[in-house]
Amino acid sequence: MLLSKSCIYGMRGALYLASSSNSKYISIKQISNDLDISPHFLTKIMQELTKAGLLESQKGPKGGVRLKKDGNEVALVEIVAAIDGMDLLTECALGLPGCGTAKPCPLHEQWADTRDEIRVMLEETTLTDLARKGKEGNLRITADGTFDWLPKDN
Amino acid sequence: MLLSKSCIYGMRGALYLASSSNSKYISIKQISNDLDISPHFLTKIMQELTKAGLLESQKGPKGGVRLKKDGNEVALVEIVAAIDGMDLLTECALGLPGCGTAKPCPLHEQWADTRDEIRVMLEETTLTDLARKGKEGNLRITADGTFDWLPKDN
DNA sequence: TATATTTGAGACAAGATAGTCTTAAATATG
DNA sequence: CATATTTAAGACTATCTTGTCTCAAATATA
Ligand code: SF4
Ligand code: SF4
């Protein structure tokens, strides 16, 4: 699996926030409900994103989470880094430790290229990109495809 | 992690075989010893490759495993398919089930491209490619870099 | 202030992956 | 044939990931 489930949930949660008007806090309960993700689990993951500085949160009624920066300034790689870490984008394809290409493995040439493709993709794709695309095509971010992308005006 | 540890060990084991003269069986014990992988664990993995038809085996003294086809006919993707399955190359980046691009997720465009890069890399790289490259550059396939790539004449 | 709501923190359980060990079956060799 | 070697099969344990639950702290609102 390329990304852990936690990371995928984090992405979907952040994407949800990026598709909303960012002025107000949204409760994780509502997000988990709309995205059909276990509330407790999503809470834990959103907490990680908050700790990482990607979200800000407020407790109590009318509380919730929201993006700290504007969605077009948040690349996917930041979410991956916060939850899965950068291992995928720095590690060896053969799992060998501590290579800086000094003593590479036979797969290095091919893997370094492929790894870069992944990295560039994650670096160049922002939450706003995905939210816009999602709204325009009414694309799914839930298993059953029931997700409304409201408000459309973001 | 892109590939499971089992898959990586399977690759390294198969690469070992491709770097040897393919006429005789090599014991898994020797392979695990040279590659510094747990013998029991590697045995289990090599069994999977044998069941998948990539290796053939013989029991008893002078027994062991060897490649069933010539190394230049074995692409990495076959090993991945045998051990991890094709999920990585067919599944959704957001973990959503059963998409055939009919109802895509917002990441689809980017991910489909990246996924293809990975697939092509795995399809176009053969064991012989890696063995040749490894011998020419004396590259490492063990954590500590102690691996000899003998015989050089393959 | 009292209450309900919501995040924060962390214990706990379930499931998947990784790794170990035991026993059986096959087979080369003396 | 007897024995040592090696794969085959699968039980078992350990570790990591995923998911659930409980309680505390903060806070909006009546
Ligand atoms: S060579 Fe590339 S893939 Fe191989 S160990 Fe070094 S970094 Fe990893
Ligand atoms: S769109 Fe592409 S990435 Fe998204 S669900 Fe369909 S296949 Fe998967």
TrEMBL record, chains A, B:
The protein's matches in NCBIfam families, at most eight in alphabetical order, are given as: rrf2_super (TIGR00738)
User: Could you tell me one molecular function GO term of this UniProt entry?
Assistant: DNA-binding transcription factor activity
GO CC: one term?
cytosol
Q: What is this protein called?
A: Transcriptional regulator, BadM/Rrf2 family
- Top-level taxonomic group: Bacteria
Coiled-coil blocks: none
InterPro entries in the record, alphabetically? Answer: TR_Rrf2-type_CS (IPR030489), Tscrpt_reg_Rrf2 (IPR000944), WH-like_DNA-bd_sf (IPR036388), WH_DNA-bd_sf (IPR036390)
Instruction: Say which species the protein is native to.
Output: Fodinibius sediminis
Pfam families found in the cross-reference section? Rrf2
